[in-house]
Design brief:
Shape: globular
Distance between the termini: 30 Å
Strand content: 15-25%
Helix content: 40-55%
Radius of gyration: 19 Å
Number of domains: 2
């Protein structure tokens, strides 16, 4: 019996994600089975063509244990920079192609197969995916419309990234920024693709299922409240004083799950003005 060689490596950064890591891995496994199904129907193969890498970042819960017991390979990174966390997963990857997804999100069943076909067509340097929320309300629908308008205007779809590992290596991996690194990385991929006459694409039939946990914890108007209550911090950051903005980023990204470790809800201790929305075939 033949054994699959690793074609895709799916990198999942995780900070204290024991509540979400299994469902994220399960969504990747479904996409992997669908991707592999044409090959399995023609050849008797063991193993998987898709490896799942969970990058544990300062985890103090059962994230690593659950990831390993559900078939993922675990690597560790202690930096407080999401770009560095993702890049450590890419460095450890064995596949020719890379896909990244955040641990609280999920992918639809045809995601890997569609990305593979687009890359193999020779027309695309890589790309992203559209986003839908796992539930909706009036403010979340408005948020969705604003995000979609921004994506369509710029063509810089994010959420799930996909490209050859060699391409990520060529652009230096994810942009070394603590926030908004996804937009800058998409720009780099788009610029790099132009050199070879290739486009930065977006999956047409599949999408990211975006977690609403921050909205569940902090309210569905979170994104809009941010624009008003944190305008000062953003303006100061634009003029070089990023101290308030850095605290904002720490609170809503790098330390977001820490309260849960102390027996509190993830939204406990929220202070107005210290809030940032994250944003099957």
């Amino acid at each position: 019996m033949k054994t699959f060689r690793t074609i895709f490596s799916v990198v999942i950064p995780a900070h204290n994600e024991e509540k979400y890591v299994v469902r994220c891995i399960d969504s990747v496994k479904r996409a992997a089975r669908y991707f592999e199904s044409p090959f399995r129907s023609r050849f008797a193969c063991s193993g998987s063509a898709v490896e799942i890498i969970v990058v544990c970042n300062r985890c103090t819960d059962r994230t690593a244990e659950l990831a390993e017991s559900n078939g993922a390979r675990v690597v560790y990174n202690e930096e407080r920079c999401i770009a560095a966390v993702r890049n450590s997963g890419i460095k450890a990857a064995r596949g020719r192609y890379i896909m990244t997804i955040d641990c609280d999100n999920r992918m639809t069943t045809g995601t890997i197969r569609e990305a593979y076909r687009m890359l193999k067509s020779g027309k695309y340097i890589g790309g992203g995916a559209g986003i839908i929320f796992e539930r909706y309300s009036v403010p979340l629908a408005l948020n969705d419309l604003m995000c979609e308008a921004g994506f369509r205007l710029t063509g810089l779809y994010c959420g799930i990234f996909w490209a050859e590992k060699a391409t990520f290596d060529a652009i230096g991996g994810f942009a070394d920024k603590r926030a908004m690194e996804d937009i800058e990385t998409a720009k780099r991929l788009k610029r790099y693709g132009r050199k070879y006459g290739k486009k930065y694409g977006c999956l047409k039939r599949n999408y990211l299922i975006n977690s609403t946990r921050k909205y569940d914890d902090l309210g569905d108007w979170l994104y809009f409240r941010l624009m008003f209550t944190n305008a000062g911090a953003m303006i100061k950051a634009a003029f070089g004083d990023s101290r308030e903005y850095d605290r904002l980023i720490d609170r809503l990204f790098y330390d977001y799950n820490n309260e849960a470790d102390n027996g509190k809800s993830a939204g406990a201790g929220y202070e107005p003005g210290i809030c940032l929305a994250e944003n099957e075939e």
